[in-house]
Write the structure tokens for this entry.
Amino acid sequence: MKFDIVASLKEFFFDIIGFFVPGFIAIIIIEKMFGVSTGFLSEVYIMIIMSYVIGYVIHSFTLLKDNWFNTLSKKLPISSVDTVLDDLSSKDNYKLVSKIIEEETKEDDQKLSHFKSFRNYAMSVVPEADKKVYIFMFRAEVFNQLHTIVLISLVIGIVFNLSSYCIEFFNDYFVNWAILIVFFILAFTLRIGWKRFYAISMNIPFSIYLSKTKTKGNES
């Protein structure tokens, strides 16, 4: 019973960080940076509800962004899910584990042929990797959500600054551009953080699987 309570609290905490916080940050940017009065901060319960709602909207934009980045990465040198997986597929760790798995599954009707299929098999063999994978995947997702917020704010801010028909979100033109430069740097650094944690989350099952295989080999 104690384990269930702890697990529920942990999941609730992840839910707050994963959806409420990005939504709340977005509301702050809308209210304070762009000067749009939403009224969401007027009451606590309204703020909580709208933060969650906007958090899920941001998550939807993040999924859309990931698809766009996968398409763009084929022509431009940008980090995407596909480029991270391609990089991991070229590592010696993956090549070694994939050969071992191919040997173990050579008599199976369904052969494994790509990175995620080998990773799913490794995770099924080493279920103890689930918690570590979840933690690093969660960290990657937080970076990804914040990256989405910064990108959207950056685009809107540039439009505001270039258009004479838009209300300036600050009264100083140069301060506006200075803030946009900071947002540009944030977009770059947040993407690096996402790439790091996403790569770790995808590679953990192979590392644990290889360690477990070596341990069995030494015991025999």
